[in-house]
Specification:
This protein is α/β, with parallel strands linked by helices. Helix content is 41%, strand content 21%. The chain starts with a strand and ends in a 7-residue tail after the last helix.
Length: 399
């Protein structure tokens, strides 16, 4: 039997569009919900045929299911159940499968919680972003601090204690003192998993565009500078680790045994299949010529529902090597060079020796025996480190 799959289901519907959001999610009329689910469920049913057309090998066993978005809990009970029933009809969920649903605080009504339990959900990820009401409101979040506290009490009372809380460093009006308040709040709650992201500034969000333009809409002129945002992230790493919520990936922290099984699949290059708008998949290639096949759906709702073609990318051994480093280095444990030798050959590690020495000399990586990992400084400039590996490993596989 091969490696169990991770299954991702995209639900791109929101009550409101947060100003920092650069995902393919938005506010849509409920009239489109059923049409969208028709397409998603059809895709799930035809997965074997689709994988074959993509030149990929498909396993039918899965050990993680993740409903993301968007806000999946904006769907009604019947719609949520339809998704889970369709998944179980087409895949074998192994015992102890991790089943996660992303939720916006304030959407967890008693009826929704009951539906999650009925569907076998055992993990919930709450998009809190900040425990300071002013900061949350400034980016379009509809909840207050008390809403989050009530939701966690309700989830635990229903038997769902595996809870993640998302926080963002760099929100408008955020200060070192207010960030301390958010960190102390999440630690006091005793949740087993916390994700900490630094605010992304790009053209794909309203707040990002306003920051780039130097404007004042969306409270852009109250966004902390890059230096302070980096300091807030470093403080989160320090405080969460001290509290026993240990960093295991650049943005993720967990108590022992509560690491996200689903997200680990992305970083360790295990197979996964995504369904819905802007959903990505990676499966082993059916051809010995390639290491894997990646494919992605349309990133616009109407195009996806209308049946837009899927974008397919063959992953060469060279590309797989690059992914091994720039995904593996996101993990605190780093990359096992012995495993790299086993998969790609001894010559590859030899060819990368110079860049490893160079990065270690600048204090960006730790290189101990067969393990390479980012330092705390390296995490802050991780994209630059990854680029060095890509440049240096461009022809390593061919040597």
């Amino acid at each position: 039997m091969g490696m169990p799959l991770g299954l991702y289901l995209s639900v791109p519907f929101c009550r409101t569009k947060c100003t920092y959001c650069n995902f393919a999610s938005d506010v849509f009329s409920r009239a489109v919900f059923d049409r969208y689910l028709d397409r998603v469920c059809a895709d799930i049913h035809t997965t074997p045929e689709s994988a074959g057309q993509m030149g990929a090998r498909l396993e039918r066993d899965a050990d993680s299911v993740y409903l993301g978005g968007g806000t999946p809990t904006i769907l009604d009970s019947h719609q949520l159940e339809r998704l889970f029933v369709t998944v179980r009809q087409n895949f074998r969920l192994v015992p102890e499968t991790e089943i996660t649903v992303e939720c916006a605080p304030g959407t967890l009504t008693p009826a929704v919680v009951e539906t999650l339990l009925r569907c076998g959900v055992n993990r919930v990820s709450l998009g809190v972003q900040s425990f300071v009401d002013r900061e949350a409101a400034s980016v379009g979040r509809l909840h207050k601090r008390e809403t989050v506290l009530d939701d966690i009490v309700r989830l635990r009372g229903a038997g769902i204690s595996n809870i993640n809380v998302d926080l963002i460093a760099g929100l408008p009006h955020q200060t070192a003192e207010s960030w301390k308040e958010s960190l102390e709040s999440v630690i006091a709650l005793g949740v087993p998993h916390v994700s900490v992201y630094m605010l992304e500034v790009d053209e794909d969000s309203r707040l990002g565009r306003e920051l780039i333009a130097g404007g004042t809409k969306y409270h852009a002129h109250f966004v902390p500078d890059e230096e302070l945002t980096a300091e807030l992230y470093e403080r989160a790493c320090e405080q969460l680790n001290c509290a026993g919520i240990t960093q295991y990936e650049i943005s993720n922290f967990a108590r022992g045994g509560f690491e996200s099984r689903h997200n680990l699949k992305y970083w360790t290059r295990e197979p996964y299949v995504g369904f819905g708008v802007d959903a990505h998949s990676m499966l082993k290639s059916a051809s010995e010529e390639f290491a894997a096949v990646r494919f992605a759906t349309a990133d616009a709702l109407e195009a996806y529902v209308a049946g837009a073609s899927v974008q397919r990318t063959e992953v060469s051994r060279q590309a797989a090597l690059e992914e091994t480093f720039f995904l593996g280095l996101r993990l605190t444990r780093g990359v096992d060079l012995e495993q790299v030798r086993s998969e790609f050959g001894t010559g590859v590690v030899t060819a990368l020796g110079a860049v490893l020495v160079d990065l270690a000399s600048f204090g960006l990586i730790d290189w101990e025996g067969d393990w390479v990992r980012l330092t705390s400084r390296g995490r802050l400039v991780s994209n630059e480190v990854f680029e060095r590996f890509l440049a240096s490993g461009a022809d390593a596989v061919m040597r």
